[in-house]
Amino acid sequence: MKFSEQWLRDWVSPQLATQALADQITMAGLEVDAVEPVAAPFEGVVVAVVVGKAPHPDADKLSVCQVDDGSGDPVQVVCGAPNVAAGQKVPFARVGAVLPGDFKIRKAKLRGAESRGMICSASELGLEEETSAGILELPATAPVGEDFRAWMGLDDATIEVDLTPNRGDCLSVKGMAREVGVLNRLPVNGPGVAPVAATHDQTFPVRVEDAERCPRYIGRLIKGVNLAAETPLWMVERLRRSGIRSIDAVVDITNYVMLELGQPLHAFDHANLHGAVIVRLAREGERLVLLDGQEITLGGDTLVIADERGPLAIAGVMGGEHSGVNVDTRDIFLESAFFSPLAVAGQARLYGLHTDASHRFERGVDSRLAREAAERATALLLEITGGEPGPLIEVSSDAHLPVGRDVLLRATRLEQALGKALPADEVGEILERLGMGVEPTAEGWLASIPSWRFDIAIEEDLIEEVARIHGYNRLPVRRPAARLALRPDHEAHTPLGRLRRQMVARGYQEAVTYSFVAPDLQQALLPQAVSPVLANPISSDLSVMRASLFPGLVRALTHNLNRQQTRVRLFETGLVFRGELDELQQIPMLGALVCGSRDPEGWSGGRDSVDFFDLKGDLESLLSMSGEPDAWRFEPAEHSALHPGQSARILHRGEEAGWIGTLHPAVRSRLGLKVDAILFEVRLDGLTHGRVPAFTPLSRYPEVRRDLAFLVAEDLPVQALLDTIGSRAGEWLIEHRLFDVYQGKGVPEGCKSIALGLTWQHPSRTLNDEEINQLVDAIVTETGQHLGAELRG
């Protein structure tokens, strides 16, 4: 919200300098982003009148003008502006004047003609950023000889306030004036708005078919307006200082009233309305060309203003091109309506729009303001464009309009929250100055909330209002009391920070991606996934809640590859969302992705590419931190995003806990990736909840080791062999170690040789060869019977 300081002071003018006023507004919770002068510095410019104009004798595009600047004798000036004419009031820079950019005006000769001064354009005075084509024409009432800067009130500042979404009531000069008046205990004196008497009885039918979304609609037919009338300079300037460009008198007036009172308005060309104005939901597939020339296809949940032939405007957002006013318009239908915030919220963004009207309606507009705004706009239209007003047409539904609210503020709760007891009279006065009706009660104060404060609903809202008006800097500074007893640290719990540090230590970088992903990316990786779809997404490619960490990691990989990063090692922790909203599961996961070379480039490193077992080793380093690595298992399985034969399901205590594997070639091709990527994700609860290691007394007796090499089918998982050996190796087996896997000469085709080192140790005696041989025989027999394994000679 941008507004002119002078405009604000027309409503309420505290005895504060500009910066002090801005600081006061900020401390009241309405953060001031910027305070900027409305015009660059200049001096020596006065209001003048062109009393004569003649062609330059030696230049076709120049004119020799006689200018009366109020000093007595006319001054000769050479001017190149195409729109200069005799009788015009203009800003005139006398000799010695200094214009923006430290440009000094001196006597000069242009093509042989003397020029003593300069007739100025708006851009030359710093009032426009773009170069003006012609001089700035002033109203006929401008006083000749008056200092132009003082007459225009250019010693002014534009104050820009960054409002939070709950303070839509301050999106107007009236709203800001209310705040400043409350803070300084001053009355607010805005322009009087009186009902405009109708001069004809003609109306235009209005039909509201969706009263829930549009509880109040006010219209008025104004006949005989003159669209050729120029917007007064004072209004153009106030709009400019608020960041709005002047367009034509009707549009300028509706914009002006919106800035002044906070009520968006719209004017339709009555000649282009047919049958009736209808407020309804759009019919699926209806099309509308907007005022900016964009043609859109309307959805069935969009509220529109229509007539009997079709849509005219998106309600509360933007009007249509066909029904807008133009230079040929003679009769206008003025609209002033109250749309519920939910009816407008998201509609502008849905069509790629953001307008001043939608910005206000989304945050809430005073439901009682529509009539006042219509009367104010009518009065300005009659003053500037002329015309004959008809009676106001109002269609409203009391059942759907916001109802008044009473909120109780307890004195004890206020003192507890502020850390300070405020006098009852002061609290009551603050609430009354905020526009509330206040009724003292035994507990405190019962406040009736005004219609423009739709953000106040509970007691805490009133506490906030009292605190900010009283002054946050006047509240006592107290440190919060807290019990600082140490919490027990469960040794079986592995903090997430340790897991992160472990991944970083192994050469990974942490990625933080959105919890929302593109639906086509999730569909490519997880075609069977079910997760919530956002009704109002940030953008179309972030419209689905992620059902896995894979989509975010793959998108981060693509981002890095596109920037010539060929070796990528990323990990991420976060929630994944599975199921519909009614039965939504939010599961904390840890995922990782690698691609590129195994080692960083260097003279001592190889150039081999990272593979499945590199990532599996990194994952196993995390599993071992839980204190029970044996609780984790990997079993071959197929996953839609992973390469068949290079993927595995991760099990924790027999239950599925995640997946690991190489990205599926078909998925990789669909996503446009030209390199292999290996990735995993695993549930965080399994990684962070383990067991406390227990001490086992060391045996003083020697170990006995046997190395066994088995010939098994090449597709047999090593884990199956280890499980079988573990079942027959006896209770004194303390270690089994895989130290060789071989295929080639001496090994039958379709088989592989797996070499294991088995170590036994008894805690209280020495094991003899006979006992060990019996265990080895049992292992060989069991593996042969169940796995078809043979002991390699």
From TrEMBL:
Question: What are the names of the required cofactors?
Answer: Mg(2+)
Top-level EC class:
ligase
| Listed EC numbers | 6.1.1.20
The answer on whether this UniProt entry bears the keyword Repressor reads: no
**Cited InterPro entries:** aa-tRNA-synth_II/BPL/LPL (IPR045864), B3/B4_tRNA-bd (IPR005146), DNA-bd_dom_put_sf (IPR009061), Fdx_antiC-bd (IPR005121), Fdx_antiC-bd_sf (IPR036690), NA-bd_OB-fold (IPR012340), Phe-tRNA-ligase_IIc_bsu (IPR045060), Phe-tRNA-ligase_IIc_bsu_bact (IPR004532)
Q: Look up the record and give one Gene Ontology term from the biological process aspect.
A: phenylalanyl-tRNA aminoacylation
Q: What SUPFAM superfamilies does this protein map onto?
A: Anticodon-binding domain of PheRS, Class II aaRS and biotin synthetases, Nucleic acid-binding proteins, PheT/TilS domain, Putative DNA-binding domain
Show the stretches that span the lipid bilayer: none
Where is this chain's protein located in or outside the cell?
A: Cytoplasm
Q: What does the entry list as the binding residues for Mg(2+)?
A: D455, D461, E464, E465
What chemistry does it catalyse, as a reaction equation?
tRNA(Phe) + L-phenylalanine + ATP = L-phenylalanyl-tRNA(Phe) + AMP + diphosphate + H(+)
Highest taxon in the source lineage: Bacteria
Task: Kindly list the GO molecular function terms attached to this UniProt entry.
Answer: ATP binding; magnesium ion binding; phenylalanine-tRNA ligase activity; tRNA binding
Q: Where is the FDX-ACB domain?
A: 699-792
Comment on bound cofactor = Binds 2 magnesium ions per tetramer.
Q: Which GO terms describe its cellular component?
A: phenylalanine-tRNA ligase complex
Sorted alphabetically, which PANTHER family does this protein's record hold?
A: PHENYLALANINE--TRNA LIGASE BETA SUBUNIT (PTHR10947:SF0), PHENYLALANYL-TRNA SYNTHETASE BETA CHAIN AND LEUCINE-RICH REPEAT-CONTAINING PROTEIN 47 (PTHR10947)
Similarity-based family: Belongs to the phenylalanyl-tRNA synthetase beta subunit family. Type 1 subfamily.
Q: What subunit structure does UniProt give?
A: Tetramer of two alpha and two beta subunits.
Supply the name of the protein: Phenylalanine--tRNA ligase beta subunit
Q: Which organism is it from?
A: Halomonas urumqiensis
| Source lineage | Bacteria, Pseudomonadati, Pseudomonadota, Gammaproteobacteria, Oceanospirillales
